[in-house]
Amino acid sequence: MNKQHYNFAYLDEQTKRMIRRAILKGIAVPGYQVPFASREMPMPYGWGTGGVQVTAAVLGRDDVLKVIDQGSDDTTNAVAIRGFFKKTAGVETTTQTREATVIQTRHRIPEEPLKAHQILVYQVPIPEPLRFLEPRETETRKMHALSEYGLMHVKLYEDITRHGHIATTYAYPVQVDGHYVMDPSPTPKFDNPKMQRMAALQLFGAGREKRIYAIPPHTEVVSLDFDDHPFSIQQWDRPCELCGARDSYLDEIVLDDKGKRMFACSDTDHCERRQSAQGEARHG
Amino acid sequence: MVEGDMKHGPLLRVNRLTKFYGARTGCRDVSFELWPGEVLAIVGESGSGKTTLLSCLWGDLMPTAGSIEYRMRDGRMRDVMRLSEAERRLLMRTDWGFVRQNPADGLRMNVSAGANVGERLMAVGARHYGNIRSEASDWLGRVEIATDRIDDMPRQFSGGMRQRLQIARNLVTGPRLVFMDEPTGGLDVSVQARLLDLLRGLVADLSIAVVIVTHDLAVARLLSHRMLVMRGGVVVEEGLTDQVLDDPQAEYSQLLVSSILQA
Ligand SMILES: Nc1ncnc2c1ncn2[C@@H]1O[C@H](COP(=O)(O)OP(=O)(O)OP(=O)(O)O)[C@@H](O)[C@H]1O
Ligand SMILES: [Mg+2]
Predict the structure, then answer these.
(1) Which residue of A258, B130, B169, B247 shows the fewest CB atoms closer than 10 Å?
(2) Residues B26-68 pLDDT 10s
(3) DSSP per residue over A124-167, as a string?
């Protein structure tokens, strides 16, 4: 592929303007799913075409892009998307959260608190949180408009009934700015509290479903729950085996074919930064 | 208007309600009043306009003409068709209920019995799992479903149980008005009898006003205080149930009653 054949960040300017209008509408109505004319991208849908289109629309020449998938910068998906923008936009890329100005993610919110100059772009497969119980779109639209969200609690009720506790661990529904309930899918609920009053702008793109939604900086984001079954995040009974963190999201990593396992931070940048800080402290 | 009028009038006032499907008449010039705790049966042959009337009242169909007024909990009569959508939907899941002929149309088949009963509570803001569950369990008991079935799915229930579950799901918010369209329709005779007994008891205990559509005069006799007989979309006779059944005035009602008696 040759760079000259593309407009900056692949999409033509008209398409980017259309997407930006959807983004602005999303920011004006926090949590509301704005329909947009999703374009074919040179990658399959499961690969985050919604996120890629949002990133393409917000990216400027001076931006520094980071792409993560499961918290890691070096999975096939993350490498492919980073490579895509390197080639089509020629922007600088990074694996370091604090250096990035735009971060596209599939499953995680970085452990390091994001700042006001950063934008977090989520790739979303299924944007409609009510779909599980109400398949009619005319009805879900009405429910959103009137803030009728009893059904979300029906889902949580069923969870507790079946499992003794709220067993939803990913795509845990949140209410944004006291009105729209949205699905932060497919991040773990561990990351939900980070969305609350985040300083960075959060944008969500669902390619196949043709929806964009947004959470402006410093917006109230509340995870739904029951008074007697309050929302809580995952906890581990051990620290990260690489950096010793006790407050980060851990992945179970299989080390060999004999079943040897290790628990380590899923946010690889966070983990590496902690390790090198510890190394420096030791070697002073 | 004096205070007394506000509190002690009819619950529902339907005035010249008309629905045309293009050139065809669904129902025409139907007027009646329903008082708190009163059970009104709407009977008539197939195609006489019963479901059309009920659908207009419930808001599934937009009437061509006429008005529907309802006394809200604050005692004021309101034009139902002029309520905002939010007000109307709130009314429908708190103060009104609808028991469908086919339970699958009135239940959520993919969630447990407890969640089916608890849904309306959660819709109006109940946020305590334990309380919702105990209220659901209480209601299952009242409709004679063993409370240890609370976590079962509706499809694990018999037809009669599903219908009772649908009733509990509607009554949990203490509605003052419930519409029923052939609630005993698809059931065996013995199951029907038990359901009718249960309905009669609940409606009387809770003094719920009911509009029940049925083609079964025995159901009307057992449950209702008053009857409307419909034919070709219009009301041909109206009166106390016993009077209409024992001494029908309109020619058509006479025919209807005698045909049942012979059968
Ligand atoms: N959606 C529709 N479009 C056109 N005509 C309709 C529609 N629904 C009902 N009708 C007509 O309106 C009239 C009244 O029908 P309705 O379904 O209200 O009768 P019903 O008394 O409920 O009958 P049944 O006892 O068979 O349920 C009939 O002539 C019917 O054909
Ligand atoms: Mg009918």
Answers:
(1) A258
(2) 999 999 999 999 999 999 989 999 999 999 999 999 999 999 9
(3) -S---TTTTT---HHHHHHHHHTT--HHHHHHHHHHHHHHSS--
- Distance from the Cα of A156 to chain B's closest Cα (Å) equals 9
Torsion of CA B181, B185, B186, B190, to 10 degrees: 130
Give the span between the Cα atoms of A90 and A83, in whole angstroms: 9
Q: Indicate if the alpha-carbon torsion angle A103, A109, A113, A119 is positive or negative.
A: positive
Q: Is A153 left (phi over 0), alpha (psi -120 to 50) or beta?
A: alpha
What is the tens place of the pLDDT at every residue in A1-45?
444 577 999 999 999 999 999 999 999 999 999 999 988 888 877
Report ipTM (2 d.p.).
Answer: 0.90
Radius of gyration of chain A (CA): 19
* H-helix segments, A1-105: 13-28, 49-58, 76-89
In DSSP terms, B201 is beta-bridged to: none
Cα separation of A230 and A208, whole Å?
33
The set of protein residues with a Cβ atom below 6 angstroms from ligand 1 is B 21, 24, 26, 44, 46-52, 215
How many Å apart are CA B196 and CA B184, to the nearest integer?
Answer: 8
Report yes or no: B157 and B163 within 8 Å, Cβ to Cβ.
no
Q: Does B118 touch chain A (CB under 8 A)?
A: yes
Nearest CA to ligand 1 atom 31: B47
Strand partners, B229: B43, B237
Higher-scoring residue by pLDDT: A257, A108? A108
- Residue A249 CA: distances (Å) to CA of A86, A99, A195, A234: 29, 21, 15, 8
Q: Give B-chain residues touching A225 at CB under 8 angstroms.
A: 127
pTM of the complete model? 0.90
List Cα–Cα distances, B12 to B33, B40, B176, in angstroms.
Answer: 6, 11, 10
Residues A184-212 have a mean pLDDT of 95
Residue A7 exposed, middle or buried by CB count within 10 Å (0-12, 13-18, 19+) = middle
Residue of B111, B112, B134 to mutate for A, most A C-beta atoms under 10 A: B111
Map residue A55 onto helix, strand or coil. helix
